[in-house]
Amino acid sequence: MSMAAPKRWFDERRSAAFLVFACALIVRCLWLTVPIEVPAQDTPDYDEIALNLVSGQGFVSHDNWFGHPMRSWRAPLYPALLASVYGLWGYHHWIVQVLQAFVGACTAVGVLILARRLHPPSGLVVGLIVALYPSLITMSAQIMTETLFAALLVAALVVATGSRFTATGSGLLVGLATLTRPVGLLLALALVLPRLWSAWQHRDGRAWLASIRRSAWMLVGLVLVLSPWTIRNGLVHDAFVPVSTHGGFILAGSNAHQPQWRQADGWQIQPDVFAQMPNEVERDRYWRSQAWTWIAAHPLAWLRLVGERFLRFWYVFRPDFNVGFMLWVPLILVGAVRFGSTPAYREITVFSALSVLVFSTLLYGSTRFRLPMEPLFLLYVGPVLSTAWASARRRMWIAAGVVWAVVNLMVWWKQEIVRGWVLEILYAGGLK
Q: Which residues, at least 6 apart from 212, have a Cβ–Cβ distance to it below 8 Å?
């Protein structure tokens, strides 16, 4: 009997993981069959780099930059992934989309594992929510970094269990996330700071040393992944470029009297910029200096932008109404308030807080930044759902949930009208 219990426990967990994976993969593959045009956005740049890698020209893009070579403009991992697909099977987006459907399904299983660790009774429910979450389903059809980045964030948190081996593995995954999007480096801080703070707060010398050792091993994994690309950039540019030369442009475009997101042809670089500064690193440094100079000279205008970008981060029309996110927002907020400061959730909470802080204070607060974080936000839903279900007021909570769902479905049904109203308000307030 004692031997049967662990086997039954393992079988139940394996069955739940298979259910979540199967549901996630099926709905994502079904979505790929829907004939909906996917906006290109950054896809042409990723494709060009990938195809140049396949053809032997190296990691470079120039078609969108008036013929000027951009050798470190993008973080390398996603274009390298595309290059491996195109090199093996030819230039076909549908193969990438199927691969991303598989990656998205693995992300749902990763969230299931995290949810079980954080609040075991609600693990399967949270895993299924992520598996069937509309924004994550549609995300797999986009030739963009979101799907891969979300998977790496979840994987790094799954692996981060405290031993030397897992700390190094977590550092490796954080490094890969950083090579997908440089803001992934914030997860390294989130995995280190809460443990150090807790050890210091309790004046626990052993815990402090254990946290230091764990952080050191995570740093080893991080450096192992980042250093080859950083060395490559140093050889190419004869300068220190940790990941990409994209940051300065984003900083300058986000911090100005007329930021790029307000402009009809936003995020464009004029040809004369390349003529005046042909060096890629020089341009990056110039834009960074421009951004910091503007912030120092216009602190009140910058504070207004911080508020605007914070609102942009939570915007729910992009361009369609994000009904999936809005359905769970109340439970996410309640869960973050009630459980966000507990030891189980502290790393996710710190990472979320740091990310929102950076996106609001320095970057442009796009909903594209929020989307890969939504699987982590949904982890706050589990304990709230469980508590509400066990409550004596269960029927009241169910009724409130039904009303909220109906309201959001009505907004989704009439989203063009509602979006028009929202845009009018934003334009009137100078926020659009």
A: 196
For the chain, percent of residues with pLDDT exceeding 70: 94
Residue 395 carries which side chain, given as an amino acid letter?
Answer: R
Residue 32, class by beta-carbon neighbours within 10 Å (0-12 exposed, 13-18 middle, 19+ buried)? middle
Say which DSSP state 261 is in: G
Given this model, what pLDDT does residue 1 score? 43
Per-residue DSSP letter, 431: -
Query: Could you give the CA distance from residue 356 to residue 314 in angstroms, rounded to a whole number?
Result: 10
Handedness of CA 305, 311, 317, 318 (dihedral sign): positive
Report the 10 Å Cβ neighbour count for 385: 20
For 4-26, the DSSP string reads HHHHHHHHHHHHHHHHHHHHHHH
Per-residue pLDDT reduced to its tens digit, 168-187? 999 999 999 999 999 999 99
Two tokens at 265? 């042809």
**Helical spans, DSSP H, in 362-429:** 367-370, 374-377, 381-390, 394-413, 415-428
Three-class DSSP category at 70:
strand
Provide CB contacts within 8 A for 191, sequence distance 6+. Answer: 156, 160, 170, 174, 215, 218, 347, 351
Rounded (5°) CA angle 337-341-347: 120
- Distance CA(294)–CA(289), nearest Å, equals 9
Supply the angle between the helices 146-159 and 164-178 in degrees, to the nearest 10: 170
d(CA 334, CA 387): 11
Instruction: Tell me the backbone φ, ψ of residue 61, rounded to 5 degrees.
Output: -135, 145
- Calculate the CA 51 to chain-centre distance: 25
Q: Which two tokens stand for residue 31?
A: 């979505």
Residue in 111, 42, 110, 109 with CA at minimum distance from that of residue 82 = 42
Considering only CA atoms, which of 58, 41, 48, 50 is closest in space to residue 86?
50
Neighbouring residues of 380: CB distance < 8 A, sequence distance ≥ 6? 331, 332, 334, 335, 336, 339, 340, 345
Count of other CB atoms within 10 angstroms of residue 89 = 12
Looking at the predicted structure, is the pLDDT value of residue 244 above 90? Answer: yes
Start-to-end C-alpha separation, the chain: 65
Token pair in block for residue 365: 């607060």
> Tokens 């799907």 identify what position?
147
pLDDT tens-digit map of 198-216: 767 666 677 678 778 888 8
